[in-house]
Amino acid sequence: MILPIPDLMIAGRVCPEMSHYAEALYRKFVIDVVGVDLITSYQESDYPFLERYLEQQFKEILIPKMEKVYGKPFNYDRMSEILTLLKKTATIRNECLEKVPSPWTLLDYGVSLAPVTTYVKAIYSGGMLGNNMAKPGLSLVSEIVPEYHIDGLIFFTAKNCRIWKRQLTIMEKMERKYGIPGVTLEADMADAKMFSEAQIDTRLEAFFEVLAARKEKRRWV
User: Fold this and answer.
1) What residues contact 139, with CB distance under 8 A and at least 6 apart?
2) Does residue 207 contact residue 181 with C-beta atoms inside 8 Å?
3) What are phi and psi of 113, to 5 degrees?
4) Which of the listed residues 24, 84, 200, 212 has the most CB atoms within 10 Å of its CB?
């Protein structure tokens, strides 16, 4: 192994397969695993309940388990220091995407996630709105399409992940409102058999043809 075997593993269950990953690692390395369920929200009114639910998991399950494994009280002051630093890092990271045109691609944004730990507010305050929630996601995409002069939308759908849903609704609305095309690419983060390179190539070729034909009709130019 490249990394040392930990004393405790924390699995954030956003996608269903995370539970299977955790179980497999537990069986192979015989280490304690705590699952934290990150429920997908559908609308902004879900935020308060989901925040309380996540906080309850930390206080009643995760932190007591950490104290038992490591044999000492949980250091809340130290956690506050770390989260303060991470918030500053996340703020700088987001500023890179707020510039028009953005100096970053989506790949840059994704790779930069490595030093940033996601916490409650990040999950339920817009981090994944574009994909997993039809109502606020639609509002967010509707704002950034003219702001960033977007010519088309490409969404990724993971068949085994409950959070990557409802892109079709967003694409249809944006096509009617702005006349821009969209395409969804399907795959699976665990099962390679669900991925078809030929299918993706076909979809992208068709998408780029439509994109070129409609580019001159952008309504914000």
Assistant:
1) none
2) yes
3) -70, -20
4) 200
Burial class from Cβ neighbours inside 10 Å (0-12, 13-18, 19+) for residue 103 reads exposed
Residue 207 near residue 152, CB atoms below 8 Å: yes
Please list the residues that pair with 182 across neighbouring strands: 153
Q: Is the dihedral of CA 46, 49, 52, 58 positive or negative?
A: negative
β-strands 32-37, 8-13 pairing: parallel
Six-digit token string for 49: 């309940």
Overall pTM surpassing 0.90 (yes/no)? no
Task: Report which residue type is found at 48.
Answer: P
Which DSSP string corresponds to 48-109? HHHHHHHHHHIIIIIHHHHHHHHTS---HHHHHHHHHHHHHHHHHHHHHHHSSS-S--HHHH
- Each residue of 22-60: pLDDT tens digit? 888 888 888 888 988 887 777 778 888 988 999 999 999
Per residue in 73-118, pLDDT (tens digit) is: 999 999 899 888 888 877 887 787 777 776 766 667 666 665 544 4
Phi, psi (rounded to 5 degrees) for 36: -110, 115
With a CB cutoff of 8 Å and minimum separation 6, the contacts of 133 are: 40, 41, 42, 43, 166
Instruction: Please report, for residues 71, 82, 194, the alpha-carbon distance to residue 18 in angstroms, rounded to integers and kept in the order given.
Output: 27, 25, 17
